[in-house]
Amino acid sequence: MRKDKDKIIAVLMILPSIIAILIFVYGFIGWSVRVSLSNWQGLLPNYEWVGFENYINLLTTDMRFKIDIRNTVLFTVLFVVVALLVGLILAILLDQGIKGEAFFRNLYLFPMAISFIVAGVVWRWLMNPAQGERISGLNLLFDSLGLDFLVNKWYTTPNWGIAFIAIPAVWQMSGYVMALYLSGLRSIPVQLREAAMVDGANEVEIYRYIIMPLMRPITLSAMIILGHISLKVFDLIIATAGKQIALDVPSIYMWQTTFDGYFFSRGAAIGILLLLSVTVLVVPYLRYSLKSEAQI
Protein backbone atom coordinates (compact mmCIF):
# COMPACT_ATOMS: atom_id res chain seq x y z
CA MET A 1 0.00 0.00 0.00
CA ARG A 2 2.82 2.34 0.91
CA LYS A 3 4.67 1.62 -2.37
CA ASP A 4 1.53 2.28 -4.43
CA LYS A 5 1.06 5.60 -2.67
CA ASP A 6 4.68 6.58 -3.33
CA LYS A 7 4.27 5.71 -7.04
CA ILE A 8 1.14 7.86 -7.30
CA ILE A 9 2.88 10.80 -5.61
CA ALA A 10 5.91 10.41 -7.91
CA VAL A 11 3.70 10.35 -11.01
CA LEU A 12 1.79 13.42 -9.83
CA MET A 13 5.07 15.25 -9.23
CA ILE A 14 6.37 14.68 -12.76
CA LEU A 15 2.99 14.93 -14.48
CA PRO A 16 3.23 18.72 -15.13
CA SER A 17 6.62 18.22 -16.82
CA ILE A 18 5.27 15.37 -18.92
CA ILE A 19 2.29 17.46 -20.04
CA ALA A 20 4.53 20.44 -20.84
CA ILE A 21 6.88 18.26 -22.92
CA LEU A 22 3.99 16.64 -24.77
CA ILE A 23 2.52 20.05 -25.66
CA PHE A 24 5.55 22.29 -26.21
CA VAL A 25 7.91 19.71 -27.75
CA TYR A 26 6.07 16.85 -29.40
CA GLY A 27 2.93 18.88 -29.99
CA PHE A 28 4.85 21.60 -31.83
CA ILE A 29 6.81 18.98 -33.78
CA GLY A 30 3.52 17.47 -34.90
CA TRP A 31 2.20 20.90 -35.84
CA SER A 32 5.36 21.63 -37.84
CA VAL A 33 4.88 18.35 -39.73
CA ARG A 34 1.31 19.36 -40.55
CA VAL A 35 2.41 22.81 -41.77
CA SER A 36 5.19 21.26 -43.89
CA LEU A 37 2.56 19.21 -45.73
CA SER A 38 0.49 22.30 -46.58
CA ASN A 39 0.75 25.23 -48.99
CA TRP A 40 1.06 27.98 -46.38
CA GLN A 41 2.69 31.00 -48.03
CA GLY A 42 1.87 34.42 -46.64
CA LEU A 43 0.73 35.84 -43.33
CA LEU A 44 -2.69 34.19 -43.51
CA PRO A 45 -2.74 30.44 -42.75
CA ASN A 46 -3.34 28.11 -45.68
CA TYR A 47 -3.71 24.45 -44.77
CA GLU A 48 -4.27 23.19 -48.29
CA TRP A 49 -2.86 19.65 -48.39
CA VAL A 50 0.06 19.21 -50.80
CA GLY A 51 1.62 16.10 -49.30
CA PHE A 52 5.38 15.78 -49.63
CA GLU A 53 5.65 18.39 -52.38
CA ASN A 54 7.71 20.78 -50.24
CA TYR A 55 10.18 18.02 -49.35
CA ILE A 56 10.47 16.84 -52.95
CA ASN A 57 11.13 20.37 -54.19
CA LEU A 58 13.82 20.92 -51.57
CA LEU A 59 15.63 17.68 -52.34
CA THR A 60 15.36 17.78 -56.13
CA THR A 61 14.92 21.24 -57.65
CA ASP A 62 15.98 23.71 -54.94
CA MET A 63 19.57 24.69 -55.80
CA ARG A 64 19.95 26.75 -52.63
CA PHE A 65 19.15 23.74 -50.47
CA LYS A 66 21.76 21.71 -52.34
CA ILE A 67 24.30 24.42 -51.51
CA ASP A 68 23.16 24.20 -47.90
CA ILE A 69 23.74 20.45 -47.80
CA ARG A 70 27.19 20.81 -49.35
CA ASN A 71 28.15 23.54 -46.87
CA THR A 72 26.81 21.55 -43.92
CA VAL A 73 28.75 18.42 -44.88
CA LEU A 74 31.99 20.38 -45.39
CA PHE A 75 31.59 22.33 -42.16
CA THR A 76 30.67 19.22 -40.16
CA VAL A 77 33.60 17.13 -41.38
CA LEU A 78 36.18 19.86 -40.73
CA PHE A 79 34.68 20.96 -37.43
CA VAL A 80 34.31 17.47 -35.95
CA VAL A 81 37.63 16.04 -37.15
CA VAL A 82 39.78 19.05 -36.21
CA ALA A 83 38.04 19.59 -32.85
CA LEU A 84 38.59 15.92 -31.96
CA LEU A 85 42.27 16.07 -32.91
CA VAL A 86 42.95 19.34 -31.10
CA GLY A 87 41.03 18.23 -28.02
CA LEU A 88 42.87 14.89 -27.92
CA ILE A 89 46.29 16.53 -28.28
CA LEU A 90 45.52 19.04 -25.53
CA ALA A 91 44.27 16.27 -23.24
CA ILE A 92 47.40 14.18 -23.80
CA LEU A 93 49.63 17.17 -23.06
CA LEU A 94 47.76 18.01 -19.86
CA ASP A 95 47.84 14.36 -18.80
CA GLN A 96 51.64 14.53 -18.55
CA GLY A 97 51.38 16.26 -15.17
CA ILE A 98 52.75 19.63 -16.29
CA LYS A 99 53.02 22.56 -13.91
CA GLY A 100 50.10 24.97 -13.97
CA GLU A 101 47.74 22.30 -15.29
CA ALA A 102 44.70 23.94 -13.68
CA PHE A 103 45.52 27.25 -15.38
CA PHE A 104 45.88 25.70 -18.82
CA ARG A 105 42.79 23.55 -18.35
CA ASN A 106 40.69 26.62 -17.52
CA LEU A 107 42.34 28.55 -20.36
CA TYR A 108 41.33 25.90 -22.92
CA LEU A 109 37.81 25.62 -21.49
CA PHE A 110 37.20 29.39 -21.39
CA PRO A 111 36.09 29.76 -25.05
CA MET A 112 33.23 27.35 -24.38
CA ALA A 113 31.77 29.86 -21.91
CA ILE A 114 31.44 32.40 -24.73
CA SER A 115 28.36 32.36 -26.91
CA PHE A 116 28.66 31.73 -30.64
CA ILE A 117 27.44 35.30 -31.25
CA VAL A 118 30.33 36.81 -29.28
CA ALA A 119 32.84 34.42 -30.82
CA GLY A 120 31.51 35.23 -34.28
CA VAL A 121 31.88 38.98 -33.75
CA VAL A 122 35.48 38.57 -32.58
CA TRP A 123 36.43 36.21 -35.38
CA ARG A 124 34.74 38.46 -37.93
CA TRP A 125 37.38 41.04 -37.12
CA LEU A 126 40.20 38.48 -36.94
CA MET A 127 39.25 37.03 -40.33
CA ASN A 128 38.62 40.36 -41.99
CA PRO A 129 39.16 39.66 -45.72
CA ALA A 130 39.98 43.31 -46.50
CA GLN A 131 43.49 44.01 -47.74
CA GLY A 132 45.49 47.09 -48.64
CA GLU A 133 44.86 50.13 -46.44
CA ARG A 134 41.96 48.43 -44.63
CA ILE A 135 43.91 45.30 -43.71
CA SER A 136 43.38 44.13 -40.13
CA GLY A 137 43.13 41.06 -37.94
CA LEU A 138 45.11 37.96 -38.87
CA ASN A 139 45.94 39.31 -42.31
CA LEU A 140 47.64 42.31 -40.69
CA LEU A 141 49.57 39.98 -38.39
CA PHE A 142 50.73 37.83 -41.30
CA ASP A 143 51.67 40.91 -43.32
CA SER A 144 53.67 42.37 -40.41
CA LEU A 145 55.57 39.09 -39.95
CA GLY A 146 56.39 38.83 -43.64
CA LEU A 147 54.09 35.83 -44.10
CA ASP A 148 52.28 37.26 -47.09
CA PHE A 149 51.46 33.79 -48.45
CA LEU A 150 49.10 33.29 -45.48
CA VAL A 151 47.09 36.43 -46.25
CA ASN A 152 43.79 35.31 -47.77
CA LYS A 153 40.11 36.16 -48.18
CA TRP A 154 38.99 33.85 -45.36
CA TYR A 155 35.21 33.29 -45.42
CA THR A 156 34.86 35.15 -48.74
CA THR A 157 37.02 32.54 -50.49
CA PRO A 158 34.95 31.08 -53.38
CA ASN A 159 33.63 27.55 -52.73
CA TRP A 160 35.67 27.15 -49.53
CA GLY A 161 34.43 30.05 -47.42
CA ILE A 162 32.40 27.78 -45.13
CA ALA A 163 35.60 25.88 -44.27
CA PHE A 164 37.02 28.97 -42.57
CA ILE A 165 33.86 29.31 -40.44
CA ALA A 166 34.92 26.03 -38.84
CA ILE A 167 37.97 27.78 -37.33
CA PRO A 168 36.07 29.75 -34.64
CA ALA A 169 33.86 26.70 -34.02
CA VAL A 170 36.94 24.54 -33.37
CA TRP A 171 38.44 27.27 -31.19
CA GLN A 172 35.28 27.33 -29.09
CA MET A 173 34.60 23.59 -28.70
CA SER A 174 38.04 21.96 -28.68
CA GLY A 175 38.39 22.76 -24.97
CA TYR A 176 35.22 20.83 -24.26
CA VAL A 177 36.56 17.84 -26.18
CA MET A 178 39.80 18.19 -24.23
CA ALA A 179 37.87 17.92 -20.96
CA LEU A 180 36.11 14.76 -22.16
CA TYR A 181 39.34 13.08 -23.21
CA LEU A 182 41.19 14.21 -20.09
CA SER A 183 38.56 12.67 -17.83
CA GLY A 184 38.84 9.46 -19.83
CA LEU A 185 42.64 9.42 -19.61
CA ARG A 186 42.53 9.97 -15.86
CA SER A 187 40.11 7.04 -15.45
CA ILE A 188 42.52 4.51 -17.02
CA PRO A 189 44.29 2.49 -14.31
CA VAL A 190 48.00 3.19 -14.03
CA GLN A 191 48.58 -0.55 -13.78
CA LEU A 192 47.68 -0.97 -17.46
CA ARG A 193 50.41 1.41 -18.56
CA GLU A 194 52.95 -0.09 -16.20
CA ALA A 195 52.15 -3.61 -17.41
CA ALA A 196 52.54 -2.51 -21.02
CA MET A 197 55.90 -0.87 -20.25
CA VAL A 198 57.08 -4.05 -18.55
CA ASP A 199 56.18 -5.96 -21.73
CA GLY A 200 58.41 -3.58 -23.70
CA ALA A 201 55.81 -1.23 -25.20
CA ASN A 202 56.91 2.34 -25.80
CA GLU A 203 54.76 5.44 -25.22
CA VAL A 204 53.39 5.52 -28.78
CA GLU A 205 52.40 1.84 -28.65
CA ILE A 206 50.72 2.34 -25.28
CA TYR A 207 48.52 5.08 -26.70
CA ARG A 208 47.87 3.19 -29.94
CA TYR A 209 47.01 -0.25 -28.57
CA ILE A 210 45.75 0.44 -25.05
CA ILE A 211 44.64 4.01 -24.41
CA MET A 212 42.97 4.94 -27.71
CA PRO A 213 40.80 1.77 -27.88
CA LEU A 214 39.60 2.60 -24.36
CA MET A 215 38.78 6.13 -25.55
CA ARG A 216 36.31 4.95 -28.22
CA PRO A 217 33.15 5.61 -26.14
CA ILE A 218 34.37 9.14 -25.40
CA THR A 219 35.25 9.71 -29.05
CA LEU A 220 31.77 8.55 -30.07
CA SER A 221 30.12 10.84 -27.51
CA ALA A 222 32.19 13.81 -28.66
CA MET A 223 31.38 13.09 -32.31
CA ILE A 224 27.65 13.00 -31.55
CA ILE A 225 27.75 16.26 -29.58
CA LEU A 226 29.87 18.11 -32.15
CA GLY A 227 27.85 16.72 -35.06
CA HIS A 228 24.64 17.84 -33.37
CA ILE A 229 26.05 21.35 -32.98
CA SER A 230 27.29 21.52 -36.58
CA LEU A 231 23.95 20.48 -38.06
CA LYS A 232 22.19 23.33 -36.26
CA VAL A 233 24.87 26.01 -36.68
CA PHE A 234 23.27 29.39 -37.24
CA ASP A 235 24.41 32.23 -34.98
CA LEU A 236 28.13 31.69 -35.59
CA ILE A 237 27.74 32.11 -39.36
CA ILE A 238 25.43 35.12 -39.05
CA ALA A 239 27.75 36.86 -36.58
CA THR A 240 30.90 36.08 -38.57
CA ALA A 241 29.88 36.58 -42.18
CA GLY A 242 26.26 37.72 -42.25
CA LYS A 243 23.77 36.50 -44.84
CA GLN A 244 25.62 35.05 -47.81
CA ILE A 245 24.32 32.37 -50.14
CA ALA A 246 27.85 30.98 -50.43
CA LEU A 247 27.84 30.36 -46.66
CA ASP A 248 24.22 29.31 -46.42
CA VAL A 249 23.14 26.35 -44.27
CA PRO A 250 19.67 24.82 -43.70
CA SER A 251 19.05 26.71 -40.45
CA ILE A 252 19.67 30.09 -42.12
CA TYR A 253 17.57 29.09 -45.12
CA MET A 254 14.77 28.04 -42.77
CA TRP A 255 14.88 31.36 -40.96
CA GLN A 256 14.90 33.45 -44.12
CA THR A 257 12.24 31.50 -46.02
CA THR A 258 9.96 31.54 -42.96
CA PHE A 259 10.34 35.00 -41.46
CA ASP A 260 11.57 36.98 -44.47
CA GLY A 261 9.71 35.20 -47.26
CA TYR A 262 6.65 34.08 -45.23
CA PHE A 263 6.80 30.66 -46.88
CA PHE A 264 5.91 28.84 -43.67
CA SER A 265 5.34 25.41 -45.20
CA ARG A 266 8.79 25.31 -46.80
CA GLY A 267 10.40 26.57 -43.60
CA ALA A 268 8.62 23.86 -41.63
CA ALA A 269 9.83 21.24 -44.12
CA ILE A 270 13.43 22.40 -43.68
CA GLY A 271 12.98 22.25 -39.91
CA ILE A 272 11.66 18.68 -40.07
CA LEU A 273 14.56 17.63 -42.30
CA LEU A 274 16.96 19.11 -39.75
CA LEU A 275 15.18 17.22 -36.99
CA LEU A 276 15.46 13.97 -38.95
CA SER A 277 19.17 14.53 -39.61
CA VAL A 278 19.80 15.07 -35.89
CA THR A 279 17.69 12.01 -35.09
CA VAL A 280 19.71 9.86 -37.49
CA LEU A 281 22.82 11.02 -35.67
CA VAL A 282 21.59 10.67 -32.09
CA VAL A 283 19.41 7.53 -32.11
CA PRO A 284 22.24 5.07 -32.96
CA TYR A 285 24.28 6.59 -30.15
CA LEU A 286 21.41 6.16 -27.69
CA ARG A 287 20.98 2.54 -28.75
CA TYR A 288 24.70 1.95 -28.31
CA SER A 289 24.64 3.54 -24.85
CA LEU A 290 21.64 1.49 -23.71
CA LYS A 291 23.20 -1.69 -25.07
CA SER A 292 26.47 -0.96 -23.25
CA GLU A 293 24.64 -0.30 -19.97
CA ALA A 294 22.68 -3.54 -20.36
CA GLN A 295 25.88 -5.52 -20.84
CA ILE A 296 27.36 -3.99 -17.68
What does this structure look like?
The protein is built from 13 helices and no strands. The mean pLDDT is 89. 73% of the residues lie in helices and 0% in strands. The chain has a domain at 69-257: MetI-like fold, CATH 1.10.3720.10. With 296 residues, it is mainly alpha-helical. The protein has helices at 2-36, 53-60, 63-94, 101-109, 116-126, 137-144, 161-186, 190-198, 203-214, 216-231, 235-241, 250-260, 264-295.
Show the helix and strand layout:
Blueprint: H1 2-36, H2 53-60, H3 63-94, H4 101-109, H5 116-126, H6 137-144, H7 161-186, H8 190-198, H9 203-214, H10 216-231, H11 235-241, H12 250-260, H13 264-295
